Amino acid sequence: MNLPVAQQQPNTLEEALLIIAAQRQENADLRARIVALDAQLRRLVRRLFRPAAETIPEIGQTVIPEVLAHTTEVLRQELATTATVTEATSIGGSDGNTESAADPIATVTAAIAATAQGLPAKPKSPRGRGRTTLPDHLEVITERVTIPDAELTQPDGSMLVPVGHERSERLDWEPGRFIRRVTLRTRYGTRDTREAVVTAPVPPAIVPKGLGGDALVLHIAQAKYDLGLPLYRQRRDWVRQGVDLSTQTACSWMRHLGARLTGVAGAIRQQILDQPILHLDDTPLKRWDRSRRGSCHLDRMWCYTAGNQVFFDFTNSRAGHWPADLLRGYRGTIVADAYGGHDRLFDPLRGGGATEAGCWAHARRPFHEHAELPEALDLLLLIQGLYRIDDVAATLATTRGTDPITERARLRRAQAPLILDEIRRRRDLLLTGPVTQSALAEGAAYLRNHWAALTRFLDDGRIPLDNNAAERQQRPIAIGRKNWLFVASEDGGAWASILLGIFQTCRLQQIDALTYLQDIMPACIAGDVDPLKLTPAAYALLRKKSLAA
Predict the structure, then answer these.
(1) How far is CA 451 from CA 59, 356, 361, 375, 389, in A?
(2) Which residue has the higher pLDDT, 50 or 16?
(3) Most CB within 10 Å of its CB: which of 145, 258, 374, 375?
């Protein structure tokens, strides 16, 4: 039998020396492997956490003069001949101008010095100001705004007549292309003097007196907040179509759109809080920290969902008071993970009055990470049995035409207690066995500490087994983190929360977001309709009634 080197017993001096040499070689191999693994770990850490900006590191002061002097001298020699030729050409030029241009050697030297000092070698061109000029190649679509005849009657019975028009242009969008939308507002005056008395009103717009038409603003918002395309990436397509629209302008449009839809987002929140059961979760989101160059602050985006609607709340921390403030007075059931900040929601002594329901998806995760162990696999199969009960209940409800909640409650009461008893027995074995320090014991401790919340589904067939409903609604944020990386300010996070929530709610309600927003936008701008009647849920219900009629 071949034993490991460390377990071999030498019988002679030669064998001992051979074993020592083998151990030294083994130790050297292990040290080399440690060095290689350490290098891999450092590369991985740098790849994950290094700053995005590839700045040049500071060079020691003892190196800069030597490098600068050598480079300057080489460039001076290279450019000496060119400078002589340039001077001769400028003197004998046909325009008779004897003034020579700036010394190229001095220019290069100054540029090298500026670069070595960390200063920009090329001055930045001044940023443009003023309204963007619309390209001439875009198709022009003209619309006229008039005043009804009933409003053109003068007190003496005479009628005002058209005497001209006010012209304005906007950059707008039709599916697949940019257009120039020209609006002609008719001016009316008396027949005899032809002096203007009244002009047709300006059509309401998301961006008042702005360049962007409503269809274009909504198109950009959908691409960013529904499809995860950042503005700089959209701008490539705009330029390809011959429209040089800046991302700063488009960003200001998102601010206007968010302000228009603030009331609708608040109404969605109110309708969610009226539901007996809601889901709560949060996800990190970076915000650019203007006070520290190249750094971001880690903020949070809280997700509240119920009744096929979603509301997002952007905050600058994960402090537990944020959901507590928003859910103050809520007396329903909250499905959430085991985050300690949620405890005050369920503690009457701290102002909470909600009922906690646990998440089995979180409970099974530690065991799924060690599914190769028999103890973990057994618990995974038992937890899967709880989900199978709900699947069978849904199938029976569809087949029999019965209420799915009633079927689910009946099967849960009949079958789930046996499975839960076995999960609890195996949980206790893991906690009292020899592997109390293992990852399985940590999963078992999670089951023990949150057992009451995890078994809450036995009391109500409406309570789901997990919090996946909230986690699914946060996928656009996860996609956005990879694309637009961060939000530029707290205001930008607030606009993002409003627009993300509305687009996700439209998806849950199975309605087209652009059609919905175009239909409700006049009422949002005018502010003369109750926002509760403008939510995607209310819009979808009205649409179903109109189709049924």
Answers:
(1) 59, 11, 14, 19, 19
(2) 16
(3) 258
The model's pLDDT over 7-17, given as tens digits with 9 standing for 90+, comes to: 667 788 888 88
Characterize the bridge pairing of strands 177-189 and 161-174.
antiparallel
- The count of residues in the chain is 549
Q: Tell me the H-state helices in 401-474.
A: 404-432, 439-449, 451-454, 468-473
Question: Positive or negative, the Cα torsion across 483, 489, 493, 498?
Answer: negative
β-bridge mates for residue 187, sequence order: 164, 199
Instruction: Answer for the pair 521, 528: CB distance below 8 angstroms, yes or no.
Output: no
Residues 6 or more apart whose CB falls under 8 angstroms from that of 362 comprise: 337, 338, 446, 466, 467
**Quick check: 520 pLDDT over 70?**
yes
d(CA 469, CA 307): 11
Give the tokens for residue 367: 């065991």
In single-letter form, the type of residue at position 410 comes to: R
The residue to which tokens 């040089």 are assigned = 244
pTM, rounded to two decimals? 0.75
Contact 416, 387 (CB under 8 A): no
Give the integer Cα–Cα distance in Å for 461 and 277: 11
Q: Which two tokens stand for residue 8?
A: 């071999």
The answer to whether 304 and 278 have CB atoms below 8 angstroms apart is yes
**Residue 340 carries which DSSP code?**
G
235: left (phi over 0), alpha (psi -120 to 50) or beta: alpha
Residue 64: Cβ-neighbour burial (10 angstroms; 0-12, 13-18, 19+): middle
Q: Which of 256, 274, 285, 290 is nearest to 327 (CA)?
A: 274
DSSP state of 246: -
Residue 334 pairs in a beta bridge with 278, 356
Q: Cα separation of 458 and 410, whole Å?
A: 9
End-to-end CA distance of the chain: 87
pLDDT per residue as tens digits for the range 317-374: 999 999 999 999 999 999 999 899 999 999 998 888 899 999 999 999 989 888 888 8
Pair of tokens at residue 177: 């292309």
Q: How much is the pLDDT for 97?
A: 42
Tokens standing for residue 549 = 């009629």
Regarding beta strands 309-315 and 139-145, do their DSSP bridges make them parallel or antiparallel, or are they unpaired? Answer: unpaired
* C-alpha–C-alpha distance, residues 44 and 112, integer Å: 35
- The answer to whether 448 and 427 are in contact (CB under 8 A) is yes
Work out the burial of residue 58: count CB atoms within 10 Å of its CB; fewer than 13 is exposed, 13-18 middle, 19 or more buried. Answer: exposed
Write the CB contacts of 521 (distance below 8 Å, at least 6 apart in sequence): 204, 206, 214, 218, 260
CB 148 within 8 Å of CB 213: no
Amino acid at 248: Q
